[in-house]
Write a structure and sequence with these properties.
By secondary structure, the protein is α/β, with parallel strands linked by helices. It contains eight helices and 13 strands. It has a domain of 154 residues: Rossmann fold (3-Layer(aba) Sandwich), CATH 3.40.50. Helix 3 runs parallel beside helix 4.
């Protein structure tokens, strides 16, 4: 009986200690970190939340996308990235893989400035635009979450729900392609659920590689399956799928 009680006390003490360590890390350690080096690249994290800083330091951030880019892209590819976030994937492609023809779009104005700064920190001239992918040219309301990966396009049925939004420039897939001053054969897409508004039948024929993160938790499984089906109908095949991130290839 005494041994069991002692084990319970030790287990409780361990859990309390672990909880203290986590709280201490998030309150005192992470907020002091202003810049990180990831994969030999420099990132300004001074405006990011402790949660994002912790994710970046864990090595889990965009790990699937990074591996897919290394495995399927070459320096000769021309890339259009939609949803550039803080510039991690764009810098991997340009600095580590050696891709020269690279255009990036980021919808959130604040994240857009962070992305540009991170490009400059790593000696990359930023070819980036502050624009969201949408079903029509003009402007859209972008829902601003507490962290950049919680941002999403907010249409009429959500504008009155009390969410914080900001108006941002928007363009169709055709419009985004026109902004790229080079040939594009690769799409990299991570737009937090707005992929449901893409008309995949209008993807130009030269595009033969797509790396896309789908968000079934946001758009639902049915729409997720429909997107996969649309791409297959356009001649793509699923080359890899990991944790809702896909590589699609076509000849």
């Amino acid at each position: 009986m005494q041994a069991a009680k002692s084990l319970i006390e030790k287990t409780l003490a361990h859990h309390l200690y672990q909880e203290f360590r986590v709280r201490y890390r998030f309150k005192y350690v992470l907020p002091k970190i202003q810049e990180l080096t990831l994969d030999g690249l420099s990132f300004d994290v001074s405006q990011l939340s402790p949660k994002i800083r912790n994710r970046l330091m864990s090595g889990a951030y965009e790990s699937n996308e990074k591996a897919m880019c290394h495995d399927y892209l070459t320096p000769e590819d021309g890339v259009l990235e939609i949803g550039g976030a803080i510039g991690f994937i764009g810098l991997i492609c340009q600095k580590k893989i050696g891709i020269k023809n690279y255009t990036c779009f980021e919808a959130n104005p604040k994240t857009f400035e962070i992305l540009k700064h991170n490009y400059e920190l790593n000696g990359v001239k930023p070819n980036v635009l502050n624009m969201a992918l949408a079903h029509a040219d003009g402007e859209v309301d972008l829902e601003i979450g507490s962290d950049f990966w919680e941002n999403s396009i907010c249409y009429e049925n959500r504008r009155d729900s009390g969410v914080k939004t900001v108006k941002v420039p928007a363009g169709t897939m055709e419009t985004l392609f026109k902004h790229a001053q080079h040939k594009v054969n690769v799409l990299i897409i991570d737009i937090e659920g707005a992929e449901q508004y893409i008309d995949f039948s209008r993807i130009p024929e030269p595009v033969n590689k797509i790396i896309i993160e789908l968000h079934p938790g946001v758009i639902g499984q049915e729409i997720t399956y429909n997107i996969v089906a649309q791409l297959i109908n356009q001649g793509f095949r699923v080359a890899r799928e990991e944790n809702d991130t896909f590589v699609f290839l076509r000849k």
